[in-house]
Description:
Blueprint: E1 6-15, E2 18-28, E3 33-37, H1 44-50, E4 61-69, E5 72-73, H2 81-87, E6 88-91, H3 102-112, H4 119-129, H5 133-136, H6 149-161, E7 167-171, H7 179-192, E8 197-201, H8 205-211, E9 214-222, E10 228-237, H9 238-243, H10 248-254
Helix pairs in contact: 3-4, 3-6, 4-6, 6-7
Amino acid sequence: MPEPILQIRNLSVSYKRSPILQDINLAIYEREILGLIGASGSGKSTLLRCCNRLNDVIAGMKVRGEVIYKGQNIYAPHIDPVKVRQQIGMVFQRPNPFPKSIYENIAFGLRVNGYKTNLDQQVEQALRQANLWEEVKDKLNESSKILSGGQQQRLCIARAIALKPQIILMDEPCSALDPISTAKIEELLLELKQTYTIVIVTHNLQQAKRITDRVAFINVEINDRGERVGRLVECNTTAEIFSNPREVSTLNYVQGRMG
Length: 259
């Protein structure tokens, strides 16, 4: 196997002393789509946010363990979380474009991160990569709010990839979208994985089957103190997880008998 682009080692997370995740070990490889599946409350979104230190902004959240990106622990004291997030971008569950023009949704982030030249070219490139350019090229100075939900989500993806990250984290990016918009996002993700590594939380098992290369199943278990906590049950190729999982709890989940 190649070296992982991101390696999670012995990661445990708690919120105000209540455990959320315990002893997570997971490798993520370059240019793959890794799906995180599991019941609500198992800690999937928390795990995703650990990968670019977004949990830092939540008071009372404590993260132990390591997340190794390109040989460095992103939780080391000298690491700037802002720079981490430039390399490991995030797309959220509900489209959250800035209350600005379509153009400024891309250009604003570029400027904030120090890009000063060729903004028009970079905005166009990001919108093209997000398969949105042809739909918005004549509306760039109009508000992002004129776009449909699916278009807004693709704009948010364009905003993320404009900074040229290595990894894109996605927290149920299609859950608020209709089936046609969902299909467009899925098609886009399959194109983007030629360039980017993608980690996606999804409750849609059919979506996980369609677009992921590997799947990690996280389940809620009871620890030795009687507390509910999320644990990684297994991670394998998508085909193996859905047709021949090692663990009974995985089989029950993918067959709809739990969660």
